[in-house]
Design brief:
Layout (H helix, E strand, L loop, with lengths): L3 E6 L3 E6 L2 E6 L2 H13 L7 E5 L2 E5 L4 E2 L11 H15 L11 H17 L5 H11 L9 E3 L8 E4 L2 E5 L6 E3 L1 H9 L6 H8 L5 H21 L10 H6 L3
Antiparallel strand pairs: 1-2, 2-3, 3-5, 4-5, 6-8, 7-10, 8-9
Helix pairs in contact: 2-5, 2-6, 3-4, 3-7, 4-7, 5-7
Length: 245
């Protein structure tokens, strides 16, 4: 009998693995709607949808292993990281999904609120928040929308050797900033940025990617704390912010 592995679980959603099947349970079915439609549109490998019976979505496991984990050294090859960059470029060149992403005003307003919360509640020192808020400003500029994954962290990119076998967790896909995807992919792994950009194959503004590292970390910490994750673990979000000092 197959064992049930809890991949992730909190009060918004849970993912279970039973053998070669992943069962995703989401309280908000609009997230699942986006995920299924985005996977159908994406021009890169994605998991096969086995069946859907709300609130459960069943997906086939991808071959290979995750590119890495935040807070841990990645054992994947430079070529595998470059392949992830190439996959991101392929996605960004694809036709836009029909639904928009967050606007600049929405992101800036949320950033202000999260920074205030971090300081008011003593979660982070004010100088650390202020410095990273300034760095994050470079990301808050007009961009040409592309098809973005929206949460392209390395645990969501699967590789086998030097090839990408698929990308999972598409519930945040939307029209967005290409530099955001590249930033999430390299968050906490700055040493791999060169490999990713070599695969991406075009000039990018690295300062904007660095700005998104700060911005994304500032936005994520409260959610992580409130859902039982440790943003203070070595190499994770707080260390990303400290590296900007």
């Amino acid at each position: 009998m197959e064992e049930v592995e809890v991949v992730v679980a909190h009060n918004e959603r849970a993912t279970l693995r039973v053998g070669d099947v992943f069962l995703k349970i989401d309280a908000d079915q609009t997230n699942t709607d986006v995920e299924v439609e985005a996977m159908a549109m994406a021009p890169i490998p994605t998991p096969e949808v086995l069946w859907r019976k709300p609130p459960v979505l069943a997906l086939a496991a991808l071959p290979g292993t995750a590119l890495g984990r935040l807070g841990e050294p990645s054992t994947a090859s430079s070529a595998a990281w470059a392949a992830a960059g190439a996959a991101a470029r392929t996605l960004h060149n694809a036709p836009l999904p029909p639904w928009p992403g967050r606007s600049l005003d929405e992101i800036a307003s949320r950033l202000d609120g999260e920074c205030a919360w971090l300081v008011t509640n003593g979660v982070l020192p004010a100088d650390l928040v202020t410095r990273n808020r300034r760095v994050a400003e470079a990301a808050l500029r007009p961009w040409t929308p592309v098809f973005t994954h929206g949460d392209l962290q390395i645990t969501h990119v699967f590789v086998d050797g030097d090839e990408v076998t698929g990308v999972i967790d598409w519930s945040e896909a939307s029209q967005g900033d290409a530099m955001f995807d590249l930033a999430i992919l390299t968050l906490g792994h700055e040493e791999r940025l060169g490999d990713v950009l070599a695969g991406y194959g075009m000039d990018v503004d690295v300062d904007v990617i660095r700005a998104w590292w700060s911005l994304r970390s500032l936005l994520a910490i409260r959610w992580l704390v409130e859902h039982g994750f440790d943003a203070f673990s070595p190499g994770c979000e707080v260390d990303v912010l400290r590296s900007r000092m």
